[in-house]
Structure formats: structure tokens, C-alpha cells
Amino acid sequence: MITNHHAHTRFSDGIGEPYEYVKQALQQGVSAYAFSDHAPIPLDGIGSMPVSILEEYSSTIAGLQEEFSGRIQLYKSLEVDYLPGLMSVESPHIVAAELDFTVGAVHYVDRLPDGTPWSFQRPEPVFGEGIRTIFGNDARKMVERYYGLVREMVTMHPPHIVAHLDRIKKRNVRQTYWDEGADWYIRAVEETLEAIQGAGCILEVNTRGLYLGEWEDTYPSAWIVERAHRRGIRLQVNSDAHRSEHITGGFARAYRILQDAGAEAVWIYNGENFTAIPLPGWD
Ligand SMILES: [Zn+2]
Ligand SMILES: [Zn+2]
What we know:
By secondary structure, this protein is an alpha/beta fold. It contains nine helices and eleven strands. It has a single domain (2-278), classed as Alpha-Beta Barrel (TIM Barrel), CATH 3.20.20. Strands 1-2-3-4-7-8-9 form a seven-stranded parallel β-sheet. One zinc ion (ZN) binds next to loops. One zinc ion is lined by residues 79, 105, 107, 163-164. Keywords: Amino-acid biosynthesis, Histidine biosynthesis, Hydrolase. InterPro entries: Histidinol_P_phosphatase_HisJ (IPR010140), PHP_dom (IPR004013), Pol/histidinol_Pase-like (IPR016195). It comes from Neolewinella litorea.
């Protein structure tokens, strides 16, 4: 049984109609699929989808659930940013959207001098500008702040699923900014896993880096998946597709990583809560 709980459509920064994703999900053998476009961020100039579009988002998904009833389980979610004091899964517009579950993520770490939230996913020169102006050119400070925000999110406003835990490594492929084997880095990850374990959130193993060729590894890396599993944190595999052809991209590798970590199950939403199913075989 193949599932995907995290993907985007044209409602946020994905390409294609929700309908195309359902067709592709069926073709790729997916039996449960969730829409989780980026939730509106209540801040001017950040370019998220407007709150007013959530109604159309909901009715589109409801229409597809009816049309494809009995063929595939379809769920309504949003990838909700955690921005301290501004937004979390408990924000009124998120609660009002009546989601099946929430996917929580930190994409912004503090703000640039002009007040804009700084996305660590942005290419240079914005990436370096953030490290320089917000963190005094100290990448370690930036990374520790990122994990601190993830801990704050899961402790204070826990989502059901934590998205791409070590996404902060996106621009660190050649370990240009920091050494991922450093004690301080492992400590930051461990403290965050401890918080996720305490909050009872599900941790996704996100394959986006694999099929885009960003990384040879998942978000989070295999060594983190293993530590998470050892702590008893529930895991699931998601593609974070922004194009329908990527819905199961990288899944074979991700399932192998889970297997190597000793995991025998993934946790999937069943319409009421999350249940364990055996790790799918995948060739
Ligand atoms: Zn994300
Ligand atoms: Zn996403």
C-alpha cells in the first residue's frame, strides 16, 4: 500500500490542477493521497495563497473525493508554516479550514533587516545575506536557531506531521556552510528528535531532494531516520511533489532507508487517525 501525505498543486507553488494529481496518484498505485498546499501566511508581500482561496481549495478537494470515491482515499491538509507570533497550526484560518491533519514546517528563520521573513531555501545572494545580516556570518547560529524553531513548533503548536526535518541542509550539499558530522549539529538534531518524540508528532521521510537531484539522501538524512526510529517516533514517506509525475518520486530509496533503519511500518492517515501499515515492498 503506497501513500503520500504531502504534495502541492497550483493552489500554492505546485504545477497542475488537483485533478491531474489524483489521476497520476492512481496511475502510480497510490491508495491514499493528501493535498497539502502551502497555507496562506497572513503577511503582505510574502506571496502565499490568499486566505480567500481556501474555500475553493476545500470545495475542489470535496468534489474530487466524491468523484473518485471507492478508488482512492483523498484527504485535505495544508503545509503550515511556523512563524513565531504570526502563524501556527492553531491560527484561526487554519482551524477554520477543517483539515484532516496538518503538516508543519519551518521555512523561515527570523527576519532580514527590512523585516521580511528570511527563507533559507532561497538561492544566493539571499541565502548568504541572511546568514550575514541575521546571524553575524555564523552558520552554526542559523542552524541552531532553525532547530530551535522546530522544537518550539512541536512543543507549543504541534502539527500532526513534521515536514522535511533537516531541510536546512538544502544549500549545504558540499558542507560549505557547516559540517554535518560536528558534535553540535548532531546535538541540535537529537534535541529536536527528543521534542518530536515528546510531542508525539509523525516524522515524514521526504524524497524531494532525491528526485530533484539536490541530494543523494532524504530529508531527513538516513542517520536521522535511524535515530528517530530508535526513539519510537512514527515515520511515513512523502514526496512533497510540486508536479504530478513526482508523486512517488524517490520512494524506492526512502523505503530502503526505513528498512535499513529497522523500521517495519509506516504510519498513514485512515480518515480518523494514524495507523501503522507494513512497510511497502517496492522494486
Ligand atoms: Zn516545505
Ligand atoms: Zn511541501
